[in-house]
Amino acid sequence: MTKALINKLAILADAAKYDASCASSGTSKRDSLGTSGIGSTEGMGICHAYAPDGRCISLLKVLLTNFCIFDCRYCINRSSSNVERARFTPAELIKLTLDFYKRNYIEGLFLSSGIIRSPDYTMEQMVEVARALREDHGFRGYIHLKTIAEADPMLIEKAGLYADRLSVNIELPTQAGLSSFAPEKSEQTIRKTMSDVKIRIDEDKDNQRKRKIKPTNNAPRFAPGGQSTQMIVGADGSSDADIITQSSSLYTGFKMRRVYYSAYSPIPDASKDLPPSPPPLMREHRLYQADWLFRFYDFKTPEILSATHDGMLDLDIDPKLSWALAHREWFPVDVNRAPKHVLLRVPGLGTTGVSRILSARRMTRLGLDDLAKLTTSVKKCLPFIEARDWTPGHLTDLANLRARYAPEPEQLCLI
Predict the structure, then answer these.
(1) Which of 161, 193, 250, 336 shows its CA 20 to 30 Å from the CA of 45?
(2) In angstroms, rounded to a whole number, what is the distance separating the alpha carbons of residues 164 and 187?
């Protein structure tokens, strides 16, 4: 690898760290055994590595370029930003991906880009990278393309035929925020592109079902890993309620695979224009927890919002516990008799723990010792459950119950 290429990689890999929406799950099983191609999407040759916040780090995550004609105020790569710029040619990026894969550094490619010349020109360059990897080099590993909403729909169609997953960033929770911080972008355009991708994915699934009946139907797969999006948290004045409501609409309206939240860190020369915000990483963490409640715990959006204060999630305790404290009429629940959807609302019980409880209670009445073997958070559950040898009594209704879970106050540094 030449020194010039290393310098480009250092700049463009660092610039890509703000793109959160990469995870290589959910695509179709594909490998190159018995073919002339290379790579696979899963199997013992693939090592999935994740950062503590859930971001996938086993992909080559890079920008085609950090030059950009747009001037989004929250973006470090905006046109008015004084950052070092670089640009890969498609050939350089293809070689880099193949070399890294052959050395077992990565399992695939996550490719995004600033906008150069025009959205169409930039999208053409990105599609060419994916096309050449698939068709010219037989690459069968994972590819995730960050789609440019303003690009021609035909280019997005081509992107979906080469990529495992597409993502179109919603950017900010509200149109007002988008108009203020990214005036070149339109929520209507973004949602139209998301809708087009969803329709095309649904059509592909229909074609796959037909293939089981008609083997001669060889329709190509379109983004088998679905689509995802990213929302920036803390750049504008949107509340957590705004963010949760927007996320819910994305999941229901576009069958979004994932909504990723990216905590905004103010850029020094723009921070004076931005409203004060809660600690960004903790706020991001709480939003991910709320996201899981309606994805895996059967919570409805109004229920999550009912546990917010002035539209903001509690930063000291998780959203599920916050909801339970605000709705104590649900508790205590008998772990030996309560249905699944009720057990899922007990603080400290996750989906795995609930499944184990449902299975184990068919054989015996469960006590606290049994629960300790089935879940790791029995202490957190105590005010909210009944078991064979436990009833919480007045504990459920304690006025200071929240204080048992919230972290102790810390002395602020006076220096």
Answers:
(1) 161
(2) 24
Sole residue written with tokens 């772990």: 335
- State both tokens at 378: 């029995």
Tokens of 406: 């919230």
Beta bridge partners of 50: 56
256, 250 Cβ separation under 8 angstroms: yes
Single out the residue of 230, 45, 63, 229 nearest to residue 142, CA to CA. Answer: 45
- 267-to-76, 82, 230, 270 alpha-carbon distances in Å: 7, 11, 19, 5
What is the rounded distance in angstroms from the CA atom of residue 396 to the CA atom of residue 329?
A: 9
Helices 187-213 and 153-162 pack at an angle, to 10 degrees, of 50
CB 321 within 8 A of CB 405: yes
State residue 359 phi and psi, 5-degree precision: -75, -45
Residue 395 burial (CB count, 10 A): 14
For 65-84, what is each residue's pLDDT tens digit? 999 999 999 999 999 999 99
Q: DSSP secondary structure string, 151-168?
A: S-HHHHHHHHHH-SEEE-
Task: Enumerate the domain spans of the chain.
Answer: 3-266, 327-401
Angle separating helix axes 319-326 and 280-296, nearest 10 degrees: 70
Q: So what's the architecture of 3-266 in CATH?
A: Alpha-Beta Barrel (3.20)
Q: What is the pTM of this model?
A: 0.84
- The arithmetic mean of pLDDT across residues 249-275, rounded, is 76
pLDDT tens across 1-12, in order?
Answer: 788 888 898 898
